[in-house]
Amino acid sequence: MNNPRFFLGIGLAFVIIFAGVSVYTHYAGSGPAPVPADHDTLYQVSTIDALMLGVYDGITPIRDLKSRGDFGIGTFDALDGEMIVLDGIVYQVKADGRILSVPDNLTTPFATVTHFEADRNITTKAPMNLSVFTTSMEEQLPTGNMIYAVRMHGTFPFMKVRSVPAQQEPYQVLSEAVKNQSVYTFSGTTGTVVGFYTPIFFKGVNVPGFHLHYLSDDRTTGGHILDFTLPAGTLVEYDITPGFTMALPTSGDFTGADLSQDLSSDLAKIEK
Ligand code: ZN
């Protein structure tokens, strides 16, 4: 290995790597942002409007999803329950309330994950419901034009979650499917809220604003959050996520879905 060209190559590689790291760490917020590292990327499977229109066939195995993030939310093939990804483990909240740890070969038709690393905290000063939480956080976040992963842990005086039962083909649209949803309320449950904030311009792609799921510490309760009471003094952690990667279905119902419609008022009814 006494080849001078080899050492020149190694040297150049170091310079390039060092330059990249230097640009990234010294980025101060002016000028174009550097290409984000993979752990600051939101990875999304399909679109919320496709799910709204009944595109429930799973396309991405959980195995692949886990390689894209250790934190996130979504649903499963045939709309079989609510997904929570926390600390790299994928949980399925079934409509009957059971919580399962998911096999890697199960698939998802819609999910969003990232590698969570908190880089901003906001502590709540008063108890608040989901609506007040949304307004309060939107006032305190640096901008509504970025994606944030959101995590908080606490004991919640009130927690109202839902899960949906698996659907049979031919699939009905989501607004029909959720008519059979199970709603559970809990008081004094301790656990983690997992979710995302996406900007208004994600309309049709994701759920603009906050989309939050819940998983209790004892892994016995959870689901898609319809409302909660957040106690004062709760540390709300945010991971600013500038990158975005989306995997779209290449076959099946997705290719024939009419995604030209504005489904946001239907979505608001379903999500809250
Ligand atoms: Zn949800």
Keyword list:
alpha+beta, 7 helices, 272 residues, seven-stranded mixed β-sheet, single chain, eight-stranded antiparallel β-sheet, binds zinc ion, 60s Ribosomal Protein L30, Chain: A, 17 strands
The biggest beta sheet reads:
8 strands, antiparallel
Residues in helices, as a percent range = 10-25%
Structurally, the number of domains stands at 1
Report the CATH C-level class: Alpha Beta
Query: How would you write the strand order of the largest sheet?
Result: 9-16-10-13-14-15-11-12
Give the averaged pLDDT, no decimals.
90
Q: Percent of residues in beta strands?
A: 25-35%
> By CATH's scheme, which homologous superfamily applies?
Hypothetical protein, similar to alpha- acetolactate decarboxylase, domain 2
How would you spell out the order of helices and strands? Answer: HEHEHEEEEEEEHEEHEEEEEEHH
Question: How many helices does DSSP assign?
Answer: 7
Q: What is the global morphology?
A: globular
If classified by CATH, what would the architecture be? 2-Layer Sandwich
Q: Compute the CA-based radius of gyration.
A: 20 Å
Number of distinct beta strands: 17
Distance from N terminus to C terminus (CA atoms, Å) equals: 64 Å
Which class best fits the helix and strand makeup?
Answer: alpha+beta
Your description of this structure?
It is a single chain. This protein is an alpha+beta fold and 272 residues long. It has a single domain, classed as Hypothetical protein, similar to alpha- acetolactate decarboxylase, domain 2 (60s Ribosomal Protein L30, Chain: A). It has seven helices and 17 strands. The chain has an eight-stranded antiparallel β-sheet with strand order 9-16-10-13-14-15-11-12, with helices on one face. A seven-stranded mixed β-sheet has the order 6-5-4-3-8-1-17, covered by helices on one side. It has a two-stranded antiparallel sheet with strand order 2-7. The protein binds zinc ion (ZN).
